[in-house]
């Protein structure tokens, strides 16, 4: 069983012709349940910041403008992922099986990535090359 999980949130964009990643958070979850909770929490956190309410006191009047209908609605996609128990179960099964999980959504300028992996699986991957080296 994989007992500990490393979770990351990153936003990627293009600057001066190069793809740049901006870390938005990292969490070392001591349990699978906490890893799933943190991923949902961060997805919700990103959705709220990408799609604030116009009457929110933190946003200056006129600062928000609607985007074109052709632009993917990243906040809605993130909220839908958070609210889907089947997707949550699938992510949990993958993580419990020691597989890396990557959830990525993008709009016309930025890709938002939630990433989680088992710390135990990472340790096993690091030792694997040492186990297959030829002797002699």
Task: Give a verbal description of the structure.
With 136 residues, this protein is α+β, with helices and mostly antiparallel strands. The chain is built from four helices and four strands, in the order ββαααββα. Helix 1 runs antiparallel to helix 2 (74-83).
With strands numbered from the N-terminus, the spatial order across the biggest sheet is 2-1-4-3
User: DSSP helix count?
Assistant: 4
Structural class from helices and strands?
alpha+beta
The count of strands amounts to: 4
CA-CA gap between termini = 35 Å
- In percent, how helical is the residue content? 25-40%
Low-confidence stretches: 130-136
Q: Name the helix and strand elements from N-terminus to C-terminus, one letter apiece.
A: EEHHHEEH
| Overall pLDDT level | 86
Largest sheet: 4 strands, antiparallel
Strand content: 25-35%
Global geometry: globular
**Gyration radius from CA atoms, angstroms:** 18 Å
List the helices and strands and how they pair.
Layout: E1 5-15, E2 18-29, H1 32-50, H2 74-83, H3 85-96, E3 101-106, E4 111-118, H4 119-131
Antiparallel strand pairs: 1-2, 1-4, 3-4
Helix pairs in contact: 1-2
